[in-house]
Design a protein that fits this description.
With 254 residues, the protein is an alpha/beta fold. The chain folds into 2 domains: 1-80 and 173-254, Rossmann fold (3-Layer(aba) Sandwich); 92-170, no CATH class. It has 10 helices and 10 strands. It has a 6-stranded mixed sheet with strand order 6-7-8-3-9-10, sandwiched between helices. The radius of gyration is 19 Å and the shape is globular. The N and C termini lie far apart (40 Å).
Amino acid sequence: MSVILEAHRLSRSFGGLRAVNAVSFAVEEGEIFGLIGPNGAGKTTLFNLMTGLTPVSSGTFTFRGTQLTGLPPHRIAGLGIGRTFQNIRLFKGLSALENVKISQHTRTVTGLFGGIIGSKTSRLEEIAVEEKGWEILKLVGLADRATEIAANFSYGEQRRLEIARALALDPKVLLLDEPAAGMNAAEKQSLTAFIREVRDLYNLTVVLIEHHVPLVMGLCDRIAVLNFGELIAVGSPEEVQKNPAVIEAYLGAE
């Protein structure tokens, strides 16, 4: 497999706090790559650096060899990196279908003028956007509630809708920030199967942050472990579980 994402000594400081410190790793195309670590380890900050939401203090990040460091979030999304957030960021007053359709704007070519005059290209694009919205909602099990506003959905349903919205970007890489947060055991098991299904169906590479270690160990091909902003281990689930530095970070030294 070829490398699709690569971080080289990525760092970010907030005042005197080094939230991410010289983190380097590579993600191979098609794999499910986990990012774990105790609270405050710098996991979400790392996602924010990778997606342009937080400026990088130093280091670089590349996608298929293209430098992404310094690009705005919409450019990075347009290149093929979609994400969800730890705190759900849906348009709560819009329907599920509208949420998914909005995300497709980076893939349309008709401008404001074309939309106003109702050009043929604009109409065809709108039809395609609508059809794809229904297709994705069906995949995540929300097609029967497509016209309901997002605020009416349960927490787990909102999580699925946020994944649907990320998929609407036609990403090559999907970044999931704590997708199992707030879910019960049955929902977590269902989510594991769902992530594999989505990866296979859309030929995706998946990178996920997750606190539920059994889910990560059972789902991911490889795992990176952060502690106090530093990378302390990268390897298979079996290798990571046996790593003394990882055991100490989670359980504390004797």
